[in-house]
Design a protein that fits this description.
Length: 544
Amino acid sequence: YHSADRKGRFSFSPSGFIPQKEIVYNGLLPYADRLDKEATELLAEIKANLCRAVLVRELWPGVSFWSRKLFSFLKLYGRRFSKEDHVLFIKLLYELVTLPNLEPHMMQGYARLLIQLLKKKELLSRDDLQLPWRPLYELYERVLYSKTEHLGLIWFPNSVDNILKALIKSCRLYFPVSSTQEMLDEWRPLLCVFDVVMQKAVSNMELFLPTIMPPEEHSQGFQLWFDELMNLWMSVQNQPSWEGHLVNLFARLANDNIGYVDWTPYIPTIFTRILRSLNLPVGVSQMVAPRYLTNSYDIGHLVLLITALLGGPGNPAQKELTCLFNSIASFYHPSNHGRWQSRLMRLLQRLPASVVRRVHRERHAAPSWIPPVPEQQRLTDADLQEFSSSLIGAALLAMFSKTGSMDAAYALQNLALLTPELIIPPVLEKTYAAMETLTEPHTLTATLSCMIGMARSLVSASNHYPEGRTHVLPLLMGSLPGVDPNDFSKCMITFQFIATFTALVPLVDCSSAPSQQGDLTEIEKDLCFASAEFEDFVLQFLDR
């Protein structure tokens, strides 16, 4: 970095300086006018002293102290430096973290800072930054497969494995185009299903192989290994220990390249494997596979894979997903309980949230260098309705689960964001029924927690479910008997319910508005007249 320093690329220039990403809330502070000067001076000091410490090879305390200063700068001011500085900081820290024989605690400190600098991947494209993969791989080998640690000659903290893996996940986006072929040359000879080394090879592939790249580079990326590894997965039936790593790799590939990989021939088998990995009891004898045979897939990656497969012409994955939830819906019934329950609930909770993230990415995300989802592969409103219809049955059953209603409430909240007209009416029906019954207080607790999650979808003035707002006052009135000091849990959920709705809807009497405003719709006029009852609600609530 001497040359970089001599060329002046590491210098700070206030004129024409475009910060990478500032913390917008700093502008709201009472001393915001002084922050620019403070940040500029601190950054100049950090850059000068960090360079000086590296040039004189003073890792301790020099580089360590000023790298911690840079970490606190990121926390206080965000990435308030130019793109050139951003790239040079990353390259410098990458050199530091991959130094051979670096003390573990120093390596961890540099790795944490590097992860922070690489966190916002949309700020730096692959053209702006490239990092060699082999130094990081050699560091990973030295730490994870150390030949001296078990002899007590070196000590690594327990957290070092996770930090290194997080660092590799942040860096692999910027590995050069040729890296995929180099990795395959390194690990493909280890792919032997009769040898334990297979586990190491597949886990390395899952961790290191880059999957985000422009479409013109796909022939040098995933297309080099996709068919081979997919055929390998399709051919194994005995659930080997490395299968989970392979599924995680495919899930990441599918999520990063929606519309660029043809999954159609494999979709039925993929959903069959997903059903098998849930390890559900089958038949009268309640047969369950023994534990050593159940290398269950990670639910988070399964959800990513299912979400990425949805959409496209004919939407074949949705048909399989509907069949999957039809076959497992009865296991969500409150009377069915077993060790499979937690995995099923996590699947139900995370799947709608993942689809919401995908819809946001396709329709609302700011444009960046990352390739967008092709138009023909994006989820349409019809696709979302079909998706919600396939999950609503399981979600309504899971509301009254013995493990609590929070998972179902989270699922219904996200489903209501996608298709409020399908999700809200059945939950409203159950809520009104629970408010009238006196013998089943647990149903009121469950339905109110679900309504709290769906509150924003209910009161928003969207075209999908405009009549939702008319239910606010009846729900508030109906919830008042829940303020009962004899049943603490019911009382608390009722307070939370009332607090949520009163935060979203101001309690103002607008009954005179229709005579003053001539452009109101019929529903809006009804809402204005109904708002006269807010006063009665407040009086009854205070009496309670």
